[in-house]
Structure formats: structure tokens, C-alpha cells
Amino acid sequence: MIHGEIHQNVRQYINGRWETSATTGVSANPSDTSEVVAEYARADRRQVESAIRAAADASSHWSHSTPQRRADVLDRIGTELLARKDELGLLLAREVGKTLPEAVAEAARAGQVFKFFAGEALRGGGENMASVRAGVQVDVTREPVGVAGLITPWNSPLAVPATKIAPALAHGNCVVFKPAELVPACGWTLAEIISRAALPAGVFNLVMGSGREAGQALVDSPLVDAVSFTGSARNGERILQAAAARRAKVQLEMGGKNALVVLADADIDHAVDCAVQGAYFSNGQRCTASSRLIVEAAVHDAFVARLRERLKALKIGHALERGVDIGPLVDEERLARSLAWVGIAREEGAEHVWGGEPLQRTTAGHYMSPALFLARPEHRIAREEIFGPLACVLRAADYDEALALCNDTPSGLSAGICTNSLKHAMHFRRHAEVGMTMVNLPTAGVDFHAPFGGRKGSGYGPREQGRHAAEFYTTVKTGYMLA
Fold first, then answer.
1. Which residues are catalytic?
2. I need a labelling partner for 66 at 20 to 30 A (CA). Which of 130, 260, 356, 458 fits?
3. Is residue 204 a part of any domain in this protein?
């Protein structure tokens, strides 16, 4: 089995310096819990406030830096991430449990994001328009918001931080970055790369610690002008209330209960591929995972039979082992939670089709077989986000009922449809109440340069990614001048 080095003395990065903290924590390899991945410092409120002050002090200088300087910094970061993608992927696989190919792909994606926003720093934006008054010139420009507090999840510990940090810096903001406590090594490694990119002290800061202390300090500080958070709906609602109360900008991505619709005219084998990739890869630990598979009655039984055979053939094991399809869940708590959902599904009368059992492998890890149930719309597994390797199939009489079931959820992030009907595909794209639609593709899997986000309970505020990121990381100024 492949092992990596333990990261000793993983510290905070505040005002251009590395700092220790009074308390420490440990992250373990979910594929082999005997292996320590990182020993890390836990920031207290005082350190977070110090990082915020450093960012606020650096804000005037960085906000007036040239686009070329910002582009050069981001390009340098992106270049190193891409050059080290195999090494970074190995670290990510060890800390999160994603299979090595998935982990390497995520590291490369993070590099591509920084490269994209290096270009955005140069492109800028603005407009000149004629005034309704003679002799008056009107200009509309974008300016940085100020200090951005970025709180990121554990499931994509390189790509999601890149999606927030890169546009924040590109548009002239200063950053205080708090990664999830489960992934300190990934957060620290990204910060270490950024720290060597010739940024002025205070422009970028890393604070590691709990959401209750470090995260809350970011949300509460009057010096933090914008808060971007990816995580649970419960925590997102708390952040919205606290930050909005002091009129800070807020951007939330809070997951979903995503549906994949399979119509009778679909290529069933391809639809099964989309279901397996969307629902089970990364152990379903993706906000875009399709945990609801809505299948037209005419092909329901055939789809379920083929999906069951595919699940039986999947290889579950150590994330670094060659040929593994799915690694472990990220920690013991998430494994227990997923197994509990299997119990809930059984108790409510959902029909068990396959999986949902803890697995033993040669190393002690958080392994579970992917679970599949036949459910009804009222079952909790068909209504609540699980964030684990469990999906349910819902039977629909026809397209109209399938669309109604797809929209019957308080969330609205991603939805997909498998069909050979252009009519149904186009209707679905228009009428699915989500932020992103997929036709003959898995619900999970998006481009880094396109806008990302959801509707209803899945998101709040401007979209992430691509050119649309400017809506959150800048503010608009309108200028009038007598010509």
C-alpha cells in the first residue's frame, strides 16, 4: 500500500507569516485510519481577528494593484498546481478518500481555475453609456468588495477553495480562507503554494479551526465585507442571518436533492452509467450527486435490474489502490450517518435492492457498499440530502409526472434527464426548477469556467465560477461627468 509523509506542524498563515496555535488537531487517512495525514494548528478567535485585520490593512494597496500584477500572481499559482497535480492528488486521496484518479483530476481543476482567473484579472469589465442629459458622460465600473471570508467544505478541498480564492484575488479583494477541519493538509498545501506567489503580506490569510469559533469569527467581523460559504443548509442559514444582519454580501452553496430522470426512449445502458457516476462516485459526497433516480414506468424494472448489476460489480477499497471505483467515506461520523439512512429507509418501507452494508478491507477504513432502494416520494430518502452512497428509484407514469417529481423538493441545484427526445430535453431544460440541467449526462460534473449554483434552498446570492463570479466579488460604481 502507498503511504505519504505526515505533515508536521501545519500552521496558520497570517499577515505573511506562519503561526502556531494553542491547540492542535489531527486528520487521519479514511482508507487506513492508522495513518495520520496531518497534525495541524487550530486557530482561536484572536488569530482569526488578527488575520482579518491584516486583510483589511492590505486591502487599499491590493485593490489598486494593476491587473497585470494580479494576473501574474494567479498564473504562477495555477502553474504550480498543475505541475504538482499528481503529488497533490495523492495528498487529497489520502485525506478525503477520493480515488486517486478523481483526486488528481481535482488538483488539475484547481490549477485550471487559477489560470482562468488570471485571464479574468486582465479582461476586467465596465461600460460607457450616453446620458439622457446633453454633455454628460456616464461610466459604470466594477471595484473590489474589500475583505472576503471564504469558508469551504471537506469534499472538494482543492477545487472549491480555488473557485473562491482565485476570483476574490483576481478582482482585487483580500482573503481570509478557512478550510474544513477534516482537510487541514489540503488547505495548508494550497495556502503554502499561494504564499510563494509574491502577494503582499495580508492579502491572503489561512486560518484553520472549527466553524463554531474560527468560522463564526469571520461571519461576525465588521471588517469582513463578503462571506462565501459552501456546506450544509443548516449552517448556511445561520451564516446568512448573521452576515446579512450587518449588511455583508453573502454567497451560499448548500447542496441539493438532485434528480436524474430516465425516460422510456433513453439508452438504458447509458442512463445506468449516468446514474452510477452521478449517485455513487466520490461516495455520493458531492452537492450535485443524484440521489433520486426518477424512471418512467415502461423501463423501470429493466433499469433497476441493470443498475443493480453495475453496483454489484463496483470495486470498493483503498483510495490509492489501482482499479478501485469507490474509496471510503471521509470519516467515521459520515459512515455511521450513511448506515443510519439505510436503517431509516428500511423502517419506512422502502424496498431494498442492493448494498448499504459496512465493508471490511485489508486496512481499517470507513468502507460501505453503495445502497439502492425503491422508494415513494414521501420517504425521507427521497426528500432529504444524504451525502453518502445511497440512491433511490422513484417510478413515474410518464414525462409529466417525472418532471413534477423532479421539482417536488425544497432544493434546486442540479437535475438531469436521459432521453432521445429533443422535445422532452428542451422542455426539461426550461422547466426543471434548478440552477443547472444535464441532458444525457450525470448530474455531478461541471465545467470550471461556467456559472455554478442553485435555486430555492440550494443557494443564495450570485453564482460562483466563470465571469459570473464578478457579481459577488465586485461592487458596481456609476460615475457621471460633465464633458
1. 253
2. 130
3. yes
